[in-house]
Amino acid sequence: MVIGIGEGENFIASDVPAFLPYTNKALFLDDFEIAIVEREKVKVFDFEGNKKEKKVHMIPWSITQAEKAGFKHFMLKEIFEQPRAIADTISGNLSWFKGDGLEIENFNKVQIVACGTSYHAGLIGKFYIENLAKVPVEVDYASEYRYREPIVDNSVLVIAITQSGETADTLAAMRLAKSKGAKTLAICNVIGSTATREADTTIYTYAGPEISVASTKAFTTQLTSLFLFALWLGRKRKVLNEIETEEYFKELMKVPSKIEEFLNREKEEENVKKISLEFYKSSDALYLGRNVNYPIALEGALKLKEISYIHAEGYPAGEMKHGPIALIDESMPVIFVATESKLKEKVVSNIEEVKARKGRVISVINEEDEEVKKLSEFTIEVPKTLEFLSPIVNVVPLQLFAYYIADFLGYDVDRPRNLAKSVTVE
Fold this sequence. Notes:
Blueprint: E1 2-5, E2 10-13, E3 25-28, E4 33-37, E5 42-46, E6 51-52, E7 57-58, H1 74-80, H2 82-92, H3 94-100, E8 109-114, H4 116-133, E9 137-141, H5 142-145, E10 156-162, H6 168-179, E11 183-188, H7 194-198, E12 201-204, H8 217-236, H9 242-269, H10 271-279, E13 284-289, H11 294-308, E14 311-316, E15 333-337, H12 344-356, E16 360-366, H13 370-375, E17 378-382, H14 390-408
Parallel strand pairs: 8-9, 8-10, 10-11, 11-12, 13-14, 13-15, 15-16, 16-17
Antiparallel strand pairs: 1-2, 1-3, 3-7, 4-5, 5-6
Helix pairs in contact: 2-8, 2-9, 4-8, 4-11, 8-9, 8-14, 10-14, 11-14
């Protein structure tokens, strides 16, 4: 529960964006607290009736950020805000990345807990941390972690990823880990939220307010934060030297402009929009990717399900023969994340298998990839970057694909049925 502190008015909500058009001052309630909210004042007590002094947090988001600014939906606006959000996340975290570091020490294992889209970010974070810092990582749905008796002690760092900082299952998982002695790190978008207050340390994502229920810029800024953390940890553990760290960082700095380049081209050519028009009446869709991009297949499928209500499945492409291949026929769109990677040849082989079964292939590729272009019915070209950074770029066309399909179907893109922005109850 969060209370917005206004001038001659106060607000009660479960998340900050609900009252952001009226005030950017927020007071967060902790468990076992009672608030009496009147027009001119707010009083907070514990359950024994003792008055409590609460800090009022200034949320660094402007009212204009919570407006559509000429876009048809908030989701579309937030997709196009991603270059700025990623750049802000990089610059906002430079103080610890380049200088002071993070206040966490002496762990030899990482456990990541999250829900929904944040869970997919965690899966990619596993690739980052294990490859760049050589620390073993487990990734759990927070709703499962909290009930499975996880093996945790003071040698474990638990990373809780949550856009709002108020997700009930993620908070419960983090609290369980802390009770067993684990160190905790929150990756969060909301200053002063419960997760940031309870974690030992926090990496903020500086995405600004995300109004649409379907997460877009929160996801790419979470990936940015996880990559920065993996680089920092790799350097700290001497897995990466200063030169290697700086080279990776320079490539990360180029990502916002690469996404902007793609979005500007999409504005002019409307390629993704045209492809979406071809498939918006589909009843099913299959998304496939490999290695660091298989979670992008999961995320692409989730976006389509969330806002268009079309059944979609995301899989590691190497698992295609273990079930999903049975679904493929001449009406099935199969979306491949097929940008340059060390497993590119295997992805090409998967595409050929889908074509042999008359599936309709849509491939996300790097520019001038003639090989995959010849095999695909439709292609979406994105700028080339490092394989580790490619998920941040590759997810953007999949977000747009889901958006346009839902819009063509006439659905309320920003408020899909049965879903809430912040899941604050179990």
